[in-house]
Amino acid sequence: MLLKNHGYRQPEHGGSWWKITNREWMRRLSEKVNADWSETLADFLDQLALYEGQIKQRTEKLNERLSRHAGGYLLQTIPGVGPRTAEAVLAYTDEVDRFRRGKQYCSYFGMTPKLDESGSRRRLGHISKQGPSVVRWLIVESAWRAIKKCPSLLYYYEQVRHGQNKRKKIAIVATARKMLSIMRAMQTTGEVFNEKLVLEQEQYPITKEMTA
Q1: Residue 123 to residue 121: CA distance in whole angstroms
Q2: Read out DSSP for 160-204?
Q3: Which ranges of 68-132 does DSSP label H, i.e. alpha helix?
Q4: What angle do CA 45, 50, 53 make, to 5 degrees?
Q5: 69 vs 90: CA distance, rounded Å
Q6: Tens digit of pLDDT per residue, the chain (212 long)?
């Protein structure tokens, strides 16, 4: 915004303002232009470098800590699951033995549908969204990556989607729930990811309400 306010609508080298070549251009610009705003630009670039250095240090410490947890390696054998997703799942899981079934585990993270009962009518509705929302967000993002890397998860996703674009959200939430169930099994058995686990029967029929 600072540069745009002073007539620089696009970075010199195109693409993102924050790629290396454009950062170097902004640094040269801040040193060349003799104006108050150029000093402000230099300060912003210094702050950005400082914050990125701090993030890098914290990330390295988190990765080192995760490497000491056996579950960290196991969960990252699932295609699409990175260190931040693995550590969030493990942190909120605590002791996996307290979850006797995959359904209970998924329910803990708010990924199972609520039962809507009215008189003699019973149907599955929205997912409950109870528990840690950060894990739900991370596991859904991981599911999007997983279906690009894992044939069996892609097959499962497509089975739920039924070729309908309007069912993409339904299908990705179902895939994320399947991944959580597999994560519990892996932590229980100590075995790495096995694509055969994906082909186990889904516990719930998928309805459009589940993802709302």
Answers
A1: 7
A2: HHTT-GGGHHHHHHHHHHHHHHHHHHHHHH-PPP-GGGGGSPPSS
A3: 70-75, 83-93, 102-108
A4: 125
A5: 9
A6: 788 888 888 888 988 988 999 999 999 988 888 888 888 999 999 999 999 999 999 888 888 888 888 889 999 999 999 999 999 999 999 899 999 888 899 999 998 876 555 555 545 556 778 888 999 999 999 999 999 999 999 999 999 998 999 999 989 999 999 999 999 999 999 999 988 777 764 554 444 444 44
